[in-house]
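Exercise: predict the structure of this protein bound to flavin-adenine dinucleotide.
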Amino acid sequence: MAAKILILGGGSGGLVAANALARTLNGSGEITLIDRNPYHEFMPSYPWVAFGFKEPDQIRRPLKLLEKKGVRVVQDTITEILPSQQTVKTENDSFDYDFLIVSLGATIDENAIENFATEAYHPWTLQGALRLREAIHNFKGGDVVVGIAGQYYRCPPAPFEIAGQLDFLLKAKRLRDQSTITIFHLTPGPLSNMGPAISRVIAEILQSKGVRFEGSFELDRIDKDSKKVIAKDGRELHYDLLIMTPFHKVNPVVAKSELSGPKFPLIDPKTFRSQKFDNVFIIGDVVNPLINLPPAGVVVHFQAEFVADQITAEIKGGYVGESFSPVAMCIMDFGDDAVLPMCEFSKTYIDLSGPPSCGVLGRGKEIRLVKAGFEALWFSLYLTR
Ligand SMILES: Cc1cc2nc3c(=O)[nH]c(=O)nc-3n(C[C@H](O)[C@H](O)[C@H](O)COP(=O)(O)OP(=O)(O)OC[C@H]3O[C@@H](n4cnc5c(N)ncnc54)[C@H](O)[C@@H]3O)c2cc1C
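Solution:
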């Protein structure tokens, strides 16, 4: 009987894993993917939706397109993962499996910080990107503040890109002279946790755009009456438009499952297998910050391929695939400039023996085209119409 493989989540990790397994198993496994969202959304393009450069249907595709590759797609909300029974429950059904891949991502909580939901805008969801688009449309100039709610959020470089794109857009709208842009972050310098080479380039770009950076700024609260964000050390930033990463928390379905331990969820960081159930793999934003990897699509992409290879090897009896490379890169689009930074996390991940090794692979407007090209490549490889 064909092995049953169940994939939870149709985001970056789930989509890559489903494609890799459909290719390598070639009929010798039954693959089912469950997501509550009927679409796969290409998150790196959310800021482009917010800034009006793309429409929602240009950055998403129906997950059902995977069925052309032999993957069964179920649109439902997962309510319970029961690994000791090899079962997953959804609102409408129940599924058993031989192998389980969990790639349920991080969960956004807009109510975790007082006043966030009404005062702050963000492109960390598609709905959020459309709301930010409306706010930018209504903005008539003033103080713009871009910042982060906490350390854990998808794509660490994205707030810097957003500040840069906003400068570009406000110039085009002839509102830049009447506006200030300030970005606040927990790190002392712009992306200084990625080392001096990247930080220097980002600082130079922000300076050339007149974007002020406030470092080591730990958010204490948002005061909606005075329209200020206030840091724990007392610093205050006035805003007319506030763009902030929402609070990201661990996925509640995984948190309450048997996969979790005192250090949620327990995995072997070399194979991404659950330490308790060796037919369960957990990858992506739901687990990466715990093993000192960033919540980034590139990382989960390599994890998904590696996990699919391990499952294929078990089912087929012998299969040599790719090993896992803890590498992340992000094409940072600043509108009239762009940067391609890359980090290798071998030293941070697993044993924290040293900092990530980072560098700038390229800089220039043309890198923006690479970002657009990558989105097209992503869909043509993984969700072809
Ligand atoms: C603005 C922005 C820019 C980014 N730019 C980059 C970039 O340039 N480079 C990069 O590498 N990464 C980037 N990322 C990050 C990248 O998109 C994520 O790290 C990646 O998508 C994580 O993949 P994942 O599979 O772990 O989770 P996700 O892609 O978040 O997928 C999780 C899926 O699980 C589903 N789900 C969750 N709970 C349930 C449930 N209970 N029932 C059913 N379905 C459920 C969700 O609907 C979702 O489809 C960016 C992210 C954002 C927001």
